[in-house]
Amino acid sequence: MKNKDKKLSKKNFSEWYHEILALADIVDDRYPVKGMLIYKQWGLFIIRETQRRLESLLEENGHQLVLFPVVIPENILGKESKHIAGFENEVFWVTHAGKNKLDVKLALRPTSETPIYEMFRLWIRSHKDLPLKVHQSCAVYRYETKHTRPLIRGREFLWNEGHAAHKDEEDAKKNINEIKKIYSKLIQDFLFIPFLINKRPEWDRFPGATETYAFDTIMPDGKTLQIATVHNLGQNFSKVFDINFEDETGEKRFVHQTSYGPSFGRLLAALIAIHGDDLGLILPPKLAPIQVVIVPIFYKDSDKDKILDYAKKIEAKLKEMNLRVYLDLSDERPGAKFYYWEMKGVPLRIEIGPRDLANEEITIARRDTKEKISIKFSALEKIFDIFSDFERNIKEKAKKEFQSKVFEANDLETLKEKAGSGICISGWCGNEDCKVKIEEFTSILGVEEGKEKKCVICGKKGIEIRTGKPY
Amino acid sequence: MKNKDKKLSKKNFSEWYHEILALADIVDDRYPVKGMLIYKQWGLFIIRETQRRLESLLEENGHQLVLFPVVIPENILGKESKHIAGFENEVFWVTHAGKNKLDVKLALRPTSETPIYEMFRLWIRSHKDLPLKVHQSCAVYRYETKHTRPLIRGREFLWNEGHAAHKDEEDAKKNINEIKKIYSKLIQDFLFIPFLINKRPEWDRFPGATETYAFDTIMPDGKTLQIATVHNLGQNFSKVFDINFEDETGEKRFVHQTSYGPSFGRLLAALIAIHGDDLGLILPPKLAPIQVVIVPIFYKDSDKDKILDYAKKIEAKLKEMNLRVYLDLSDERPGAKFYYWEMKGVPLRIEIGPRDLANEEITIARRDTKEKISIKFSALEKIFDIFSDFERNIKEKAKKEFQSKVFEANDLETLKEKAGSGICISGWCGNEDCKVKIEEFTSILGVEEGKEKKCVICGKKGIEIRTGKPY
Description:
Two copies of one chain form a homodimer. Chain A is α+β, with helices and mostly antiparallel strands. Chain A has three domains: 13-275, 2-Layer Sandwich (BirA Bifunctional Protein, domain 2), CATH 3.30.930.10; 290-386, 3-Layer(aba) Sandwich (Rossmann fold), CATH 3.40.50; 406-468, Translation Initiation Factor IF3, CATH 3.30.110. Chain A has helices at 13-23, 41-60, 74-77, 81-87, 113-123, 169-189, 236-241, 264-275, 304-320, 334-344, 354-358, 382-403, 412-418, 432-438, and strands at 27-28, 38-39, 64-65, 71-73, 92-97, 100-108, 132-141, 156-166, 196-199, 211-218, 224-234, 244-246, 252-254, 256-262, 292-296, 325-327, 348-352, 361-366, 372-376, 406-408, 423-428, 443-452, 463-468. β5 (92-97) of chain A pairs antiparallel with β5 (92-97) of chain B.
């Protein structure tokens, strides 16, 4: 148990964020390679649960789990020209092994389109093999030159990447919609993180994609954070990787492709940032490594054994209910225990004193609302209702907060004023000059081609855009 | 569904092994980097279940889950001189990133003693922090110059590695015993793979260790396969990494350390090789991606709907029982389906024909014994008993096979004759000349210092040794 010498305050978000990562033992950022972290148990548990949930959604949808090697031969990474142009400044290169220089340099994967499509060529023969949908959960490597930030921008990060091959554009679009739904389910209904899906402008697409959709959330400091992306790759990769199939009529055709991925690190960063408060983390029950902590309170020595027995009885019962429960019997004072487990974000704390024992009751303290609730021991299953209400509450709170940071900005003044405080909804005529003027102080995150809106710079007819300052 | 053109035969083990890996879609070894595999869903499922079981055993034992970066700076990997001497010919080096040459070369981890102990120095202050036990499941990288073989010897392989720091030698030995028990439980009671634990001779220890214990199993071709190791590191690493703690008296002392790991790839290879037969894989129910496959058999079109309804009813019931079940409604003939799912190793097949329907019965075919068993629909939970018997049966079969390959070899002739057919129990006087003579045709896998046995070469007093030809 670590001592807290200092009060956390979320007002200074950047400081709060770094402090809580260390205090709650989420990651250790002291590893001697810039931008690379050590994941600790408390954080890894959340990442693993997120991963498991996503994987099961993808598998229900027909995705096959795979795992590819971490390295990509230079000639394969370089096949698609726009793709390699987008990544060549960010690639870590393995050039030697033992005392030998390698004949072909190996890249640490920055993303896995190229190695996976190299195999798709072998795996796909006929229209019966389509759609082929695979996914893997792994780390990827990018030599970031921007300022790195734990879980938000690193040189090694954990994600799940999905890759699919389709018989035509229509099936590719269908998959994009299904993936958007799956990611929405994960992010909104499991992590309770609000977001907007933005269609990135042409200059901000994934290298090699014909369309890129991004899930953007808003962090407490008003900056936006891209937590997942979905790409339409058209036939750009299938043509250079020669991924073709025989269609129903016996004709050879190139597949259409899609690829997509959420970042587990950024999802964890957003979860921490959006739900947490001045006391520390607030973890949704399904994701909390410990869901219920039991703190027995001994006033008199004569009560001690009885209270302890009662605490153990509750612990056993909760375990029977398949809950992750921890009975804190350390030497700390109850107040210090409360403080510590609140900081760690444990959803419910059960305090057990002599009165609880006498009444066969249990006092439950909710981490989110700080409410105290008394329930009978015989009605312990009410905890599940409390969990549901907990989830509903943090979801709603996060949503309200998010909505308060989405602004209509129909004039330049508002756009300037609100830039960096969230996401602005504005208009843009499509003209390069107006784009440059907008991007002097903010970034265009999304272009909504279907929605008309006057340009915020020149006043001419345009389309809706979403702007913000991304991490 | 793949067609099988050729009959498998386990007599030619090497051919059988490579064919079944491809046929059952365990891995794809056509990735264009030597010694690196693509793991496919059927194999990954088994690895993940093995990993999950091991991780939960380690966590019950007080191990904390961590995940370290894949790269190790050269200066850290090189700190312990014996360790780096043992690995320097096998290390992949990252030397460049983007267009820049890195100031410090980065190794792809061949094992993680050095990066983890670099952090142990920061994490350990007092005797209260001890023992500190962590583990991670990850891939490691070794530039093997020997012949590579899928899952058995590769340049990228999946494992779990545990690392612990102890206050003294006694606690280190205690941990070694606990880990031996945990690994035994995993390998013997979950994977049903028989093994011997061999204390490696001095010249075959892990680089930097004072003792190395290895779990050796025997493959169908008589070669031995090291599937897990446990090392006593003494204070070799703690002294160079300066990992010290304040003991109860306030004195600074260096920790003792242990490290250990099983290879998930090799465990999978052994599982496939040891339990499989001429029809293909035989998977233990707990590890099978599909535990029960249902194949409806339609003789007459008029029966079709009724049989299909019955099949779906059984499927629903089995899912309710939390079983992984698959109803095969593909266009293949029943015979082809039987063949395919037998090859994939699915433990139980349920065939449903008109008679089963009429009698509200179910015909179950066991993959291990090929027995057919009829049970009533109302007694479906008998499947769990069949699973238990299945496990008992393959465990016993594997054990018998193993025991038939362990030989007493008290004279040179027997030792020579049996070398390469399994493990020989012999004696050795400790003399270098005699060692050289033994290792001319076999390898010393284990030295049992406590057990006296006459030297198989010179006849003088010696200790028991175990020999064999390892993969």
